[in-house]
Every structure is written in structure tokens, then in C-alpha cells.
């Protein structure tokens, strides 16, 4: 990783835990759809060949010694972006559910609206992704509560498909929670309480291309109810201020 120079102000960060089967196709898609951006895979303590297949694809890899979860992996990604001068970070899952072609839509929304964080929203009119039962109910309640906190209507506050602009990169490089749901619920609260603008853009979500989901439906439901605990923690955190950022133009 040392000595790698920035070639783009946009960095796609892919947190990956045991994604050796899905990751090669994801990286090939990113290379085809976004040849001008830099790509970082954060190997989140995988026990398979995730790190090896990423290196074989020619991208930069950070190897975390233990599994920290998505929040910990993204925190490493934001810190890497900050030190290398990347002004925009796009979070993309390593399991193939996020279409790299949609990254351009998120970047366009970021530039057109002046937002600091743009969420790729599954329930905003694009695609046919569905969530049912208690899981969907919990997601709706979370969206209502977080919409009030950030001051705009959000329909998918647990989406991991996001683009973060310069202010958000500077903030998240310093204050990004590694705890459970830190990458979704808590990070949105931190951004809003720091005065950043959060918006969303509709995206279609695809089925996982390979590998095994980390959550069963029952675990997913429990996971989302735990989100309310994360939300309670988030709103009690001291407000953050955005660190100073440099003046590079976006490209």
C-alpha cells in the first residue's frame, strides 16, 4: 500500500469480508464502468482469499488483522482517502449487490445538489428490491426518525451504497463509528449534527452474486432493531465539527 499515489479525487472503497468468490467480478465491473477512479479494498479480517483476489485484480488493499465490521473497514477507507488526497469516497459492497454503473448517478447527485452525503436508496422508485415483515417495519421507522434529524425525507437509511463529498470525507476520517450500524445510522446522525447536507438518489439493488449472506432473516430483523440502540447512542454523542479541507477540484 505504501507509495501508492492518488490518480483521481474519487476513491471507491469496498469493505470485504470473505468475498473471494464475488469480489473478482465486482472489481472487473468497477474497472469497466469507472476506469478513471481509484479503488481500495479493505479486507476486513477475512479467512479466505479475499485479499489475494483483490491484489490479483491490481487494486490497493488494506488488510485489517481482525474482523471489525463495515464501520471499522470504512473508517480505514476514509482515513486512507484523507491521507492520499481523495475528496470523494464511494462505498460499494463487495458482494455484487451494488451496480457500479450507479456510482456515476451518486456522484452527479453529489455535485448537482451540493450535498455532502448521497445515499443510494433502494426504496425510492428504482428497481424491485423488497424487505418484508418486521425488518421492513423497522427500516421505515428508522427512516422517519432519521429524516427528521437530517432535515430531509430519506427512505433507506440502512443502505451501504453512499457517496461522501469533501466535508464528509474529512469528518468521517476523524469521526467514523466502528460500532454496530456505525456505517449507516450513526454516521448519518454524525453528519447531520455537524451541519452536513444528506440526500438520497434512487438505485436498483441486485441479488448477491456469490458467497453467503452474513445475516439470516431472523438475524437481520434483530440487527435492525438493534439499530434503535445505535440511534440512541448516536444522538447522545457530542456534536462534531468538520475539519478544514483543501481546495482541490473534483474530477
UniProtKB/TrEMBL annotation:
<feature type="domain" description="Glycosyltransferase 2-like">
    <location>
        <begin position="12"/>
        <end position="137"/>
    </location>
</feature>
<dbReference type="InterPro" id="IPR050256">
    <property type="entry name" value="Glycosyltransferase_2"/>
</dbReference>
<comment type="similarity">
    <text>Belongs to the glycosyltransferase 2 family.</text>
</comment>
<dbReference type="InterPro" id="IPR029044">
    <property type="entry name" value="Nucleotide-diphossugar_trans"/>
</dbReference>
<dbReference type="InterPro" id="IPR001173">
    <property type="entry name" value="Glyco_trans_2-like"/>
</dbReference>
<protein>
    <submittedName>
        <fullName>Glycosyltransferase family 2 protein</fullName>
    </submittedName>
</protein>
<dbReference type="Pfam" id="PF00535">
    <property type="entry name" value="Glycos_transf_2"/>
</dbReference>
